[in-house]
Amino acid sequence: MIRAVGKPLEEIIDMVKDYDKILLAGCDGCVTVCEAGGLKETKVLGSALRLHFTQAGQNKVIDETSLTRQCDPEYVGQLRDTIDNYDAVVSLACGVGAQFVVDMYKDKVVYPGVDTCFLGVTEERGWYTERCQACGSCILAETGGVCPIARCSKRMLNGPCGGSEGGKCEVSPEMPCGWQLIYERLKTLGQLDRFEKPRDTKDWTSSRDGGIRQIVREDLRI
Amino acid sequence: MRLQYPPDIRIIQVPCTGKVDILHLLAAFEEGADGVFVAGCLEGDCHFIEGNLRAKQRVKRVKEILDKVGLGGERVEMYNLSAGQGGRFAEIAREMDQKIRELGPSPIKLSKKKSTGSRVEVAA
Fold it and tell me: Would you place residue B112 in the very low, low, confident or very high pLDDT band (cuts 50, 70, 90)?
């Protein structure tokens, strides 16, 4: 799932300070799970902004809503009847959702309320770690289900490097070495022979090569 | 025990401080409360295991928010005491009341021109 963190309050205050009517639009998808941009966080931000502007003697309209998903047109379309009541929108969805609001309401000022970070898992509440970099060509089958692209700091295809020590990456003593994880996993599976076979250069054309990526599923289109 | 504590404190009862949400605390300030203190059970004594620890984290976050919006994080506090510590409750209430009086009325209340003196909310 996409993981994000709320932008610093000062940054959001600075973005919206010149507008009188502001809509805070949360997303009930990924950002709700990591408690960065669901309805609850949207209401917290709304309350904080009202406190700030009220104590500063500025009377602003600050309303909150949250859409099922901001990355699908049917849900973003639900803003159609109300969005013109506002001068600016702060989207608490990931960068994908914020941009989709821009796409659908081209004359509206839209600001991001969160910093979108990575595709990751919940280790425990409040602790999320990266697992996938959406390279578009999954090699998990070859690496025991541990991704060297996301979990090796150097994205090495034939690791570990000389910076791996005691199972940790040289980047940080707390950071597990991705290739150590791959080695241990393959050992557990009895597939260490995979580890001994050098991998060919990865085909990166499915990643950012060639510009903006698209998926077109003709079987789903009418 | 007939303990005395300031009469301008309004007590809001909840089953556990784990029920106290960030939004509840912020709503109190939006409504013009001068200060809020959350009175939870002693750490390690929560019937629901970690309700008071959750409340502690939420109070910490509200403090950060109040600092950033210009109200001052010292207007909200978390205290831990047992149900048998009535004397301590009165002491905390007086301490909090005094602190809030020194800080002055909430700027929100002043801004809304509803100035009627100090008011402290308690979630217990």
Answer: confident
Residue B79's domain spans which residues?
A: 9-123
Given this model, what pLDDT does residue A126 score?
Answer: 95
**In what helix (H) or strand (E) does residue B55 lie, and over which residues does it extend?**
helix B51-69
Q: Measuring CA to CA, how many Å separate B15 from each of A148, A186, B56, B103, B123?
A: 48, 50, 16, 30, 10
A55 contacts B71? CB cut-off 8 A = yes
Number of domains comprising chain A = 2
Q: Is residue B3 part of a domain?
A: no
Classify residue A44: in a domain, yes or no.
yes
Same domain, A93 and A16: yes
- Domain range for A189 is 141-206
Q: How many domains does chain B have?
A: 1
Q: How many CA atoms lie within 13 A of A113 on its CB side?
A: 33
Q: Are A1 and A34 in contact (CB under 8 A)?
A: yes
**What average pLDDT does chain A have?**
96
Residue A64: inside a domain: yes
Q: Count how many residues are written for chain B.
A: 124
Q: Do A44 and B23 touch (CB under 8 A)?
A: yes
A155 and A109 in one domain?
no
Find all residues with CB under 8 Å of B74, minimum gap 6, and list them: B63, B99, B103
Report the mean per-residue pLDDT for chain B: 92
* B-chain residue closest to A8, CA distance: B68
Sign of the dihedral defined by the CA atoms of residues B13, B30, A7, A172, in that order: negative
**pTM of the entire structure?**
0.92
pLDDT greater than 90 at residue A170: yes
CA distance B68 to chain A (A): 7
Residue B115 has what pLDDT?
41
Q: Is the pLDDT of residue A214 over 80?
A: yes
A195 in the same domain as A107? no
Nearest CB neighbour to A43, from listed B23, B65, B112: B23
Kindly state whether residue B89 falls inside one of the protein's structural domains: yes
